[in-house]
Design brief:
This protein is α+β, with helices and mostly antiparallel strands. About 60% of the residues lie in helices and about 15% in strands. It has 13 helices and 10 strands. The strands form 3 sheets. Strands 1-2-3-4 form a 4-stranded mixed sheet. Helix 1 crosses helix 2, helix 3 runs antiparallel to helix 4 and helix 5 runs antiparallel to helix 6. The radius of gyration is 26 Å and the shape is elongated. Bound molecules: zinc ion.
Length: about 375
Protein backbone atom coordinates (compact mmCIF):
# COMPACT_ATOMS: atom_id res chain seq x y z
CA UNK A 1 0.00 0.00 0.00
CA UNK A 2 1.26 3.49 -0.83
CA UNK A 3 1.65 5.66 2.24
CA UNK A 4 1.38 9.43 2.05
CA UNK A 5 4.40 10.70 3.90
CA UNK A 6 8.08 10.11 4.46
CA UNK A 7 9.43 6.64 5.22
CA UNK A 8 11.77 7.44 8.08
CA UNK A 9 13.27 4.16 9.28
CA UNK A 10 12.48 0.53 10.01
CA UNK A 11 12.46 -0.79 13.58
CA UNK A 12 12.30 -4.59 13.79
CA UNK A 13 10.57 -4.78 10.43
CA UNK A 14 8.07 -2.01 11.24
CA UNK A 15 8.15 0.91 8.81
CA UNK A 16 7.97 4.26 10.60
CA UNK A 17 6.19 6.82 8.42
CA UNK A 18 5.90 10.55 9.07
CA UNK A 19 2.73 11.94 7.55
CA UNK A 20 3.08 15.39 5.99
CA UNK A 21 0.48 16.72 8.43
CA UNK A 22 2.86 15.92 11.29
CA UNK A 23 5.17 18.81 10.27
CA UNK A 24 2.36 21.25 11.05
CA UNK A 25 2.30 20.02 14.66
CA UNK A 26 6.09 20.05 14.84
CA UNK A 27 6.28 23.71 13.76
CA UNK A 28 3.38 24.62 16.04
CA UNK A 29 5.10 23.01 19.04
CA UNK A 30 8.49 24.65 18.29
CA UNK A 31 6.84 28.02 17.74
CA UNK A 32 4.63 28.01 20.84
CA UNK A 33 7.51 26.71 23.00
CA UNK A 34 10.04 29.26 21.74
CA UNK A 35 7.77 32.28 21.55
CA UNK A 36 5.50 31.82 24.54
CA UNK A 37 5.98 28.85 26.90
CA UNK A 38 9.73 29.03 27.65
CA UNK A 39 10.01 32.86 27.72
CA UNK A 40 7.24 32.80 30.33
CA UNK A 41 8.69 30.04 32.53
CA UNK A 42 12.41 30.90 32.06
CA UNK A 43 13.04 34.63 31.88
CA UNK A 44 16.79 35.05 31.42
CA UNK A 45 17.60 33.60 27.99
CA UNK A 46 18.05 34.91 24.46
CA UNK A 47 15.67 34.25 21.55
CA UNK A 48 18.00 31.71 19.81
CA UNK A 49 18.26 29.82 23.09
CA UNK A 50 14.45 29.69 23.38
CA UNK A 51 14.24 28.39 19.81
CA UNK A 52 16.87 25.74 20.51
CA UNK A 53 14.88 24.64 23.58
CA UNK A 54 11.71 24.55 21.46
CA UNK A 55 13.34 22.37 18.80
CA UNK A 56 14.80 19.95 21.37
CA UNK A 57 11.43 19.74 23.15
CA UNK A 58 9.57 19.07 19.87
CA UNK A 59 12.05 16.35 18.84
CA UNK A 60 11.79 14.63 22.22
CA UNK A 61 7.99 14.89 22.06
CA UNK A 62 8.18 13.17 18.66
CA UNK A 63 10.32 10.37 20.16
CA UNK A 64 7.84 10.08 23.05
CA UNK A 65 4.90 9.54 20.67
CA UNK A 66 7.01 7.06 18.70
CA UNK A 67 7.84 5.17 21.93
CA UNK A 68 4.10 5.01 22.75
CA UNK A 69 3.29 3.47 19.35
CA UNK A 70 6.33 1.17 19.45
CA UNK A 71 5.14 -0.19 22.80
CA UNK A 72 1.76 -1.13 21.24
CA UNK A 73 3.57 -2.68 18.27
CA UNK A 74 6.10 -4.70 20.24
CA UNK A 75 3.43 -6.22 22.49
CA UNK A 76 1.29 -7.03 19.40
CA UNK A 77 4.30 -8.63 17.69
CA UNK A 78 5.07 -10.59 20.85
CA UNK A 79 1.61 -12.13 20.43
CA UNK A 80 2.36 -13.18 16.88
CA UNK A 81 0.55 -10.31 15.14
CA UNK A 82 2.15 -8.57 12.18
CA UNK A 83 2.64 -4.81 12.47
CA UNK A 84 2.99 -3.18 9.06
CA UNK A 85 3.78 0.40 9.95
CA UNK A 86 3.69 3.16 12.51
CA UNK A 87 2.38 6.41 11.17
CA UNK A 88 2.90 9.69 12.97
CA UNK A 89 0.45 12.38 11.98
CA UNK A 90 -1.17 15.55 13.22
CA UNK A 91 -3.09 13.92 16.11
CA UNK A 92 -0.32 11.58 17.28
CA UNK A 93 0.45 8.11 16.01
CA UNK A 94 -1.25 5.01 14.65
CA UNK A 95 0.26 1.53 14.48
CA UNK A 96 -1.13 -0.36 11.49
CA UNK A 97 -1.67 -4.00 12.39
CA UNK A 98 -2.52 -6.65 9.79
CA UNK A 99 -5.07 -8.53 11.91
CA UNK A 100 -7.34 -8.19 14.94
CA UNK A 101 -6.09 -9.43 18.33
CA UNK A 102 -7.12 -13.02 19.10
CA UNK A 103 -8.82 -12.38 22.43
CA UNK A 104 -9.87 -9.67 24.84
CA UNK A 105 -6.88 -10.47 27.03
CA UNK A 106 -4.50 -9.93 24.10
CA UNK A 107 -6.10 -6.64 23.14
CA UNK A 108 -6.05 -5.45 26.76
CA UNK A 109 -2.26 -5.82 26.95
CA UNK A 110 -1.63 -4.25 23.53
CA UNK A 111 -3.82 -1.25 24.35
CA UNK A 112 -2.38 -0.75 27.83
CA UNK A 113 1.25 -0.81 26.64
CA UNK A 114 1.01 2.66 25.01
CA UNK A 115 -0.39 4.73 27.90
CA UNK A 116 1.84 2.79 30.34
CA UNK A 117 4.90 3.81 28.30
CA UNK A 118 3.76 7.46 28.20
CA UNK A 119 3.18 7.38 31.95
CA UNK A 120 6.68 5.90 32.54
CA UNK A 121 8.20 8.63 30.33
CA UNK A 122 6.28 11.27 32.29
CA UNK A 123 7.79 9.89 35.51
CA UNK A 124 11.33 9.83 34.06
CA UNK A 125 11.15 13.37 32.68
CA UNK A 126 9.43 14.48 35.89
CA UNK A 127 12.26 13.09 38.02
CA UNK A 128 14.89 14.78 35.84
CA UNK A 129 12.97 18.03 36.21
CA UNK A 130 12.67 17.72 39.99
CA UNK A 131 16.35 16.86 40.55
CA UNK A 132 17.60 19.72 38.34
CA UNK A 133 15.08 22.18 39.75
CA UNK A 134 15.95 21.39 43.39
CA UNK A 135 19.69 21.58 42.67
CA UNK A 136 19.21 24.73 40.60
CA UNK A 137 21.32 23.22 37.79
CA UNK A 138 20.92 23.38 34.03
CA UNK A 139 17.75 25.48 34.07
CA UNK A 140 17.00 25.18 30.29
CA UNK A 141 17.30 21.35 30.47
CA UNK A 142 15.02 21.36 33.50
CA UNK A 143 12.44 23.47 31.63
CA UNK A 144 12.43 21.09 28.64
CA UNK A 145 12.18 18.06 30.96
CA UNK A 146 9.28 19.69 32.83
CA UNK A 147 7.44 20.31 29.58
CA UNK A 148 7.97 16.71 28.40
CA UNK A 149 6.76 15.32 31.74
CA UNK A 150 3.51 17.29 31.32
CA UNK A 151 3.14 16.36 27.63
CA UNK A 152 3.64 12.63 28.24
CA UNK A 153 1.30 12.73 31.22
CA UNK A 154 -1.38 14.38 29.06
CA UNK A 155 -0.73 11.85 26.28
CA UNK A 156 -1.32 8.97 28.73
CA UNK A 157 -4.37 10.67 30.23
CA UNK A 158 -5.98 11.61 26.93
CA UNK A 159 -5.44 8.15 25.45
CA UNK A 160 -7.14 6.56 28.44
CA UNK A 161 -10.49 8.22 27.58
CA UNK A 162 -12.70 5.12 27.32
CA UNK A 163 -13.98 5.74 23.78
CA UNK A 164 -13.03 3.45 20.90
CA UNK A 165 -10.70 3.78 18.94
CA UNK A 166 -8.60 5.49 21.66
CA UNK A 167 -6.50 3.16 23.85
CA UNK A 168 -8.95 3.55 26.74
CA UNK A 169 -11.76 2.51 24.38
CA UNK A 170 -9.74 -0.51 23.27
CA UNK A 171 -9.21 -1.47 26.91
CA UNK A 172 -12.96 -1.11 27.52
CA UNK A 173 -13.70 -3.20 24.41
CA UNK A 174 -11.21 -5.85 25.57
CA UNK A 175 -12.96 -6.13 28.94
CA UNK A 176 -16.44 -6.31 27.36
CA UNK A 177 -15.17 -8.78 24.75
CA UNK A 178 -13.75 -10.99 27.50
CA UNK A 179 -17.01 -10.80 29.46
CA UNK A 180 -19.50 -11.23 26.58
CA UNK A 181 -17.30 -13.41 24.37
CA UNK A 182 -18.66 -11.39 21.43
CA UNK A 183 -16.25 -9.05 19.65
CA UNK A 184 -18.90 -7.44 17.43
CA UNK A 185 -21.15 -6.49 20.32
CA UNK A 186 -18.15 -5.19 22.32
CA UNK A 187 -16.98 -3.11 19.32
CA UNK A 188 -20.46 -1.65 18.83
CA UNK A 189 -20.74 -0.61 22.48
CA UNK A 190 -17.19 0.79 22.71
CA UNK A 191 -17.58 2.79 19.49
CA UNK A 192 -20.92 4.19 20.66
CA UNK A 193 -19.20 5.45 23.80
CA UNK A 194 -16.34 6.76 21.60
CA UNK A 195 -18.89 8.67 19.56
CA UNK A 196 -20.32 10.13 22.77
CA UNK A 197 -16.92 11.32 23.99
CA UNK A 198 -16.21 12.78 20.54
CA UNK A 199 -19.37 14.89 20.80
CA UNK A 200 -18.32 16.05 24.28
CA UNK A 201 -14.90 17.12 22.90
CA UNK A 202 -16.49 19.00 19.98
CA UNK A 203 -18.87 20.76 22.36
CA UNK A 204 -16.04 21.59 24.76
CA UNK A 205 -14.01 23.02 21.85
CA UNK A 206 -16.97 25.14 20.78
CA UNK A 207 -17.40 26.47 24.34
CA UNK A 208 -13.68 27.38 24.50
CA UNK A 209 -13.94 29.08 21.13
CA UNK A 210 -17.00 31.20 21.87
CA UNK A 211 -16.62 32.00 25.55
CA UNK A 212 -12.88 32.24 26.16
CA UNK A 213 -11.60 33.11 22.66
CA UNK A 214 -8.98 30.36 23.03
CA UNK A 215 -8.76 29.92 19.27
CA UNK A 216 -6.03 27.27 18.93
CA UNK A 217 -7.18 25.12 21.87
CA UNK A 218 -10.84 25.38 20.81
CA UNK A 219 -10.12 24.37 17.22
CA UNK A 220 -7.82 21.57 18.38
CA UNK A 221 -10.57 20.03 20.53
CA UNK A 222 -13.09 20.37 17.70
CA UNK A 223 -10.76 18.74 15.16
CA UNK A 224 -9.76 15.90 17.43
CA UNK A 225 -13.44 15.36 18.30
CA UNK A 226 -14.36 15.20 14.60
CA UNK A 227 -11.49 12.79 13.96
CA UNK A 228 -12.58 10.58 16.86
CA UNK A 229 -16.19 10.67 15.72
CA UNK A 230 -15.22 9.59 12.22
CA UNK A 231 -13.11 6.69 13.56
CA UNK A 232 -15.86 5.61 15.96
CA UNK A 233 -18.49 5.60 13.20
CA UNK A 234 -16.06 3.69 10.94
CA UNK A 235 -15.40 0.98 13.50
CA UNK A 236 -19.12 0.70 14.26
CA UNK A 237 -19.90 0.16 10.57
CA UNK A 238 -17.07 -2.35 10.24
CA UNK A 239 -18.54 -4.31 13.17
CA UNK A 240 -22.02 -4.29 11.57
CA UNK A 241 -20.56 -5.42 8.24
CA UNK A 242 -18.65 -8.21 9.95
CA UNK A 243 -21.79 -9.37 11.71
CA UNK A 244 -23.79 -9.40 8.47
CA UNK A 245 -21.14 -11.46 6.68
CA UNK A 246 -20.58 -13.85 9.56
CA UNK A 247 -20.41 -17.45 8.38
CA UNK A 248 -20.57 -16.47 4.69
CA UNK A 249 -17.91 -18.20 2.62
CA UNK A 250 -16.29 -17.03 -0.58
CA UNK A 251 -17.87 -19.96 -2.54
CA UNK A 252 -21.35 -18.59 -1.75
CA UNK A 253 -20.71 -15.15 -3.23
CA UNK A 254 -18.17 -15.75 -6.00
CA UNK A 255 -19.04 -15.52 -9.68
CA UNK A 256 -18.44 -18.94 -11.21
CA UNK A 257 -18.75 -18.06 -14.89
CA UNK A 258 -15.55 -16.10 -15.02
CA UNK A 259 -14.65 -14.10 -18.11
CA UNK A 260 -11.03 -15.08 -18.59
CA UNK A 261 -8.45 -14.17 -21.22
CA UNK A 262 -6.07 -16.47 -23.06
CA UNK A 263 -2.51 -15.42 -22.41
CA UNK A 264 -1.68 -15.11 -26.14
CA UNK A 265 -4.41 -12.49 -26.69
CA UNK A 266 -3.05 -9.17 -28.04
CA UNK A 267 -3.63 -6.03 -25.99
CA UNK A 268 -5.71 -4.58 -28.86
CA UNK A 269 -8.04 -7.55 -28.64
CA UNK A 270 -8.09 -7.41 -24.84
CA UNK A 271 -9.32 -3.82 -24.90
CA UNK A 272 -11.82 -4.31 -27.74
CA UNK A 273 -13.32 -7.72 -26.86
CA UNK A 274 -12.99 -7.78 -23.08
CA UNK A 275 -12.58 -4.39 -21.41
CA UNK A 276 -15.13 -2.54 -23.60
CA UNK A 277 -17.57 -5.43 -23.80
CA UNK A 278 -17.61 -6.56 -20.17
CA UNK A 279 -16.89 -3.23 -18.42
CA UNK A 280 -14.45 -4.90 -16.05
CA UNK A 281 -11.05 -3.57 -15.09
CA UNK A 282 -9.21 -6.85 -14.52
CA UNK A 283 -9.32 -10.39 -15.93
CA UNK A 284 -7.83 -13.75 -14.96
CA UNK A 285 -5.37 -15.06 -17.56
CA UNK A 286 -5.36 -18.70 -18.66
CA UNK A 287 -2.91 -20.83 -20.62
CA UNK A 288 -5.38 -23.48 -21.87
CA UNK A 289 -6.94 -24.54 -18.53
CA UNK A 290 -4.18 -23.35 -16.24
CA UNK A 291 -4.41 -20.08 -14.27
CA UNK A 292 -1.24 -18.11 -15.06
CA UNK A 293 -1.97 -14.58 -13.81
CA UNK A 294 -4.19 -11.48 -13.77
CA UNK A 295 -4.22 -8.59 -16.22
CA UNK A 296 -5.67 -5.20 -15.30
CA UNK A 297 -5.96 -1.75 -16.83
CA UNK A 298 -3.05 -0.69 -14.63
CA UNK A 299 -0.85 -3.27 -16.44
CA UNK A 300 -1.84 -1.94 -19.87
CA UNK A 301 -1.59 1.78 -19.12
CA UNK A 302 2.26 2.03 -19.28
CA UNK A 303 2.32 0.38 -22.76
CA UNK A 304 2.21 2.96 -25.63
CA UNK A 305 -0.95 2.61 -27.73
CA UNK A 306 1.05 1.94 -30.93
CA UNK A 307 2.37 -1.27 -29.38
CA UNK A 308 -1.01 -2.71 -28.34
CA UNK A 309 -1.21 -4.76 -31.57
CA UNK A 310 2.22 -6.28 -30.97
CA UNK A 311 2.16 -7.03 -27.25
CA UNK A 312 0.35 -9.99 -25.75
CA UNK A 313 -1.36 -10.35 -22.40
CA UNK A 314 1.45 -12.59 -21.11
CA UNK A 315 3.95 -9.73 -21.65
CA UNK A 316 2.21 -7.35 -19.25
CA UNK A 317 0.18 -9.52 -16.83
CA UNK A 318 0.93 -9.99 -13.13
CA UNK A 319 2.15 -13.60 -12.92
CA UNK A 320 0.19 -16.12 -10.82
CA UNK A 321 2.86 -16.35 -8.10
CA UNK A 322 2.51 -12.61 -7.42
CA UNK A 323 -1.30 -12.53 -7.57
CA UNK A 324 -3.20 -12.48 -4.27
CA UNK A 325 -5.96 -15.06 -4.43
CA UNK A 326 -8.74 -16.57 -2.32
CA UNK A 327 -9.95 -20.10 -1.69
CA UNK A 328 -13.63 -21.15 -1.85
CA UNK A 329 -13.66 -21.89 1.88
CA UNK A 330 -12.30 -18.46 2.92
CA UNK A 331 -14.41 -16.16 5.03
CA UNK A 332 -16.15 -13.32 3.15
CA UNK A 333 -15.07 -10.76 5.78
CA UNK A 334 -11.47 -11.92 5.49
CA UNK A 335 -11.74 -11.68 1.69
CA UNK A 336 -12.99 -8.09 1.92
CA UNK A 337 -10.24 -7.16 4.39
CA UNK A 338 -7.60 -8.58 2.07
CA UNK A 339 -8.99 -6.81 -0.99
CA UNK A 340 -9.10 -3.48 0.81
CA UNK A 341 -5.55 -3.95 2.16
CA UNK A 342 -4.20 -4.89 -1.30
CA UNK A 343 -6.34 -2.15 -2.90
CA UNK A 344 -7.76 -4.45 -5.60
CA UNK A 345 -11.37 -4.57 -6.79
CA UNK A 346 -11.44 -8.23 -7.83
CA UNK A 347 -9.65 -11.34 -6.59
CA UNK A 348 -9.49 -14.75 -8.29
CA UNK A 349 -10.67 -17.82 -6.35
CA UNK A 350 -8.39 -20.82 -6.80
CA UNK A 351 -8.75 -24.46 -5.80
CA UNK A 352 -5.60 -26.59 -6.22
CA UNK A 353 -4.22 -23.97 -8.59
CA UNK A 354 -7.34 -24.10 -10.77
CA UNK A 355 -9.51 -21.01 -11.33
CA UNK A 356 -13.00 -21.71 -9.95
CA UNK A 357 -14.42 -18.21 -9.58
CA UNK A 358 -13.85 -14.53 -8.93
CA UNK A 359 -15.01 -12.23 -6.14
CA UNK A 360 -15.34 -8.49 -6.34
CA UNK A 361 -15.60 -5.99 -3.52
CA UNK A 362 -18.87 -4.90 -5.08
CA UNK A 363 -20.30 -8.47 -4.75
CA UNK A 364 -19.58 -8.42 -1.03
CA UNK A 365 -21.01 -4.95 -0.51
CA UNK A 366 -24.13 -5.89 -2.54
CA UNK A 367 -24.71 -8.91 -0.33
CA UNK A 368 -24.39 -6.63 2.70
CA UNK A 369 -26.88 -4.18 1.20
CA UNK A 370 -29.39 -6.97 0.39
CA UNK A 371 -29.08 -8.30 3.92
CA UNK A 372 -29.64 -4.90 5.48
CA UNK A 373 -32.58 -4.18 3.11
CA UNK A 374 -34.15 -7.42 4.33
CA UNK A 375 -33.54 -6.35 7.92
CA UNK A 376 -31.12 -9.22 8.50
CA UNK A 377 -28.29 -7.21 10.07
ZN1 LIG B 1 -1.94 4.39 22.02
Amino acid sequence: MQLRGINLLKIRGVQVVIDYSWFVIFLLVVFSMAESYFPRTEKSYSTPEYWLMGIVAALLLFLSVLAHELAHSLVAMGQGMRVLSIRLFIFGGVAQVSSEPRSGRHEFLIALAGPATSMALACIFGSVYLVLWMGGWLRPVAAVAGYLATANGLLAFFNMIPGFPLDGGRILRAILWDRWNDLTRATKTASRIGNGFALVLILFGAVLLFFTQALVAGLWFIFIGLFMKQSAVGSYQAAVLKEALKGVQVRQIMTENVVSVDWLTSLDELIRDYVYRHHLSSFPVLDREEFVGMVSLADIRPVPKELWGFKQVRDVMTAADRVLSLRPGDDATEALTRMVAADVGRMPVLEDGRLVGIVSRRDIMNLFKIKSDLGLT
